[in-house]
Amino acid sequence: MAVLVGLCALAYGLMLALFGPSDRPVEAQLGKALGDGIVTIYLHPLRVDPVNSSLQMRISMVPAAIAGAPVAIGDRNRSLVIQRGNQVEHVAITIGQPLPEVVFDFDLSDGDVRDYPLDRYRASMTLAVSETGADGKETALPIHVTLWEGLLGFRVRGRAEPTQGKEAVGLRLDIRRSGAVSIFGIAVYVAMAVIAICGLLIGGLVFAGVRRVEVTFAGALGAIIFAVPALRAALPGTPPLGIRADVLIFFCAEFGATIALCLFVAAWIRSGARP
């Protein structure tokens, strides 16, 4: 028992060190440093859809401070260019109009939901702002990007990527499940495996005649059959049925619990008490 408790404590400590469930989201500062003449863009991830491999992101222009107060009205004709994969979006910024706030979906790459709860993804984008002068000529403007790295159930980390556009900012977002979600998912699948093994031990030992038939175990084994799917349904993020952890653990645990009940019933039929 002492060895088992020690191994469990060691495994838990390793998971805490690897996944960092206490990490707090912060605002990542990318691109040019804040200053006069620098256009500021704020990125706020809204939702990750691993099944459809998409990231929903809200992109807004941060108003410049004029006379000590932020003014959320465009003072110049500008254009915000957002490149997402092979698509390029142009958002117009017009004089006298509110600064734009748009929501786009970005494709996720280098990840698969079948790896839940250890799945990781990557998204890329390029941002650029140009200003239209009186002569109609467009001039690229330096920009500063603020990325909020908080997202429910996920951990987002942003970093700059090289880009060919002048004054453009390339971003790479590394996305993975939060530490709490990963630890809870691993714990649930471990619990499924332990429950199934315990059920097989009960059914196998009774069937082999090593332990006597106690009818109360029939209810416990029957409850295990329904408890395993309930544990599966409690997983955060509701991963689709058929991920790798299901094939390796969940399906085996469900079949094992059913076999354990069948072995117990067979032993009860063979040597149970007669009326």
Automatic annotation (TrEMBL):
TM region(s), chain numbering: 181-209, 215-235, 247-269
Domain of life: Bacteria
Pfam families from the UniProt entry: DUF4436
The entry's keywords: Membrane, Transmembrane, Transmembrane helix
Name of the protein described by the UniProt record: DUF4436 domain-containing protein
Species name: Labrys miyagiensis
